[in-house]
Amino acid sequence: MPFLKKPWSLADGFIFGGGLILLGFLLQAIFGPVNWDLIASPVNLILLLALLVLVTVVYVMREKAGFFGWLGSPEAAVPAISCALFLTIIMGLTAQIPERGWLGNMVTFWPFVICFVWLTVSVGLSAFGGIRRVVHSWKAIPYTLIHLGFFVTLVCATLGSADKRDLEMTLHEGETLSTASTEDGTSYETGLSVRLEDFTMEVYPSGMPKRFASDVLVRNKSGKEISAVIEVNKPLKVDGWKMYQYGYDEEAGTESQVSILEIVKDPWLPMVYVGIFMMLAGAFLMLVTGFKREEVK
User: Fold this and answer.
1) pLDDT(54) > 50
2) Rounded to 5°, angle at Cα 208 from 205 and 211
3) What is the pLDDT of residues 23-35, one digit of tens each?
């Protein structure tokens, strides 16, 4: 196919990006917003494998097809970053309220998602190239760490979002619950049994809240019981969940017998941190090797 073999330039990249955005608008009109719940585990693991296979095939074929070779080049990276940045700026300038239409929820907006997939593939190809160069020269390590870390961060933050649970649990003193709900009222089993033993609140002389905390008894799946006090900025960690003190019965104030807990689980977050650490390590090594080169000169 001619489009695979012909040399691709920077200008072609921006045309390609514009085409992807138009494709995104078409998909948005036909299918509606991206439903991230559909790629929850194990679907996201399958997609991860498919992405790795895609990047590997494109990298292997880079010298046989001009388009594949271009995908991992700066001429593709610059338009990919530009398109993703442009849509990210729109997201920052637009109130993210789903009821306001397509631009009100950019993370489910097809053009936004497609452009970030393009950026991810481009970064992945650069990381593959860096890994290959590391075999021949240690000087490629900083470059490789930065691109590989960026790739890991993008992939895990995107695919992992489907497995993230940000739930709310409202407990009365003496009550035990094992379910929590999302903002839209959807209930989820947490696998934890949470009992509110006591809710306490302290206030300043002005009446402003000084401290409020929940004394809870938590039983996990294995039957282990954990007694703890959850305060603002002092969450409880149990079986991958983080339980935060979120609110209380504001009308009752210091007499409140109700505690509102925010319960969060993000199993892919550690890998996102790994990717960020790799980028920081790469930037540090690049800085160090840069200074060394100056000294040699």
Assistant:
1) yes
2) 95
3) 999 999 999 999 9
Pairwise CA distance, residues 78 & 170, whole Å: 48
CATH of the domain at 220: 2.60.98.10
Strand order in the sheet with 241-248: 225-231, 209-219, 187-203, 176-181, 165-172, 258-265, 241-248, 236-238
What is the pLDDT at residue 24?
96
The string of DSSP letters for 13-27 reads HHHHHHHHHHHHHHH
Say which range, 1-5, 45-49, 70-74, 184-188, has the weakest mean pLDDT: 1-5
DSSP assignment letter at 94: S
Cα 188 to chain centroid, rounded: 21
Rounded Cα distance between 6 and 206, Å, is: 73
With 0.85 as the threshold, say if the pTM is over it.
Answer: no
For residues 133 and 230, state if they share a domain.
no
**Number of domains the chain is built from:** 2
Lowest mean pLDDT among 40-44, 66-70, 84-88, 145-149: 66-70
- 178 in the same domain as 211: yes
**Does 156 share its domain with 224?**
no
Pair (156, 246) in one structural domain: no
User: Which residue segment(s) compose the domain that 248 sits in?
Assistant: 165-265
Does the pLDDT of residue 285 top 60, yes or no? yes
pLDDT at 178: 94
One domain for residues 150 and 289: yes
CB-CB contact of 94 with 104 (8 Å): yes
User: CA 134, 137, 138, 139 torsion: positive or negative?
Assistant: negative
In whole angstroms, how far apart are CA 26 and each of 91, 99, 208, 220, 280?
19, 20, 51, 46, 38
* Phi, psi at 209, each rounded to 5°: -60, 130
